Amino acid sequence: MNLTGMLYGSKLLKYVDFPAAEVLEPHDGEEEIQ
Amino acid sequence: MIKRHGSVFIKPLFKGGIGKKGKSGLIGRTSDLKTALKEIERLYFAEHRAGQISAKANGVTIEGAVPAEHEVYFAITNSTIYRAPTMTLTHRGGVDIEELDKAEIAEVPFDALTGIKSFLIANALSKIGASKEIVSPLVQQLPKLWALFHHYGMTTLELNPIRMMPGKGGRLIPVACDFKCGFDRNDHRWQRLDLPAQLFAADFSDFEVEINQLRTYQGQSDVYVINDQGSVNSAREAVDALIELFARSGLSDARDENFNLNSISVTDELGQRFIGKETDQQAETMMQAVIERGVKSVFLKFLESLGAPLTANAVLAGIATTIAWGPLMRKRISKNTARNLPWYLKIYAAIIGASVEGSKHEADRFCGVINQSLLREWTVGEIAYLSLMGEPADAQQLFDFQILVGLLTTNGSGSISAQGCKGAVSSDGPQTPKRVQINKAMIGFLSHTGFSHGGAGYEGITFLVDQFKDTGLIDAGSSKHGLGPG
Question: Which domain, by its residues, includes B296?
Answer without folding.
Answer: 206-330
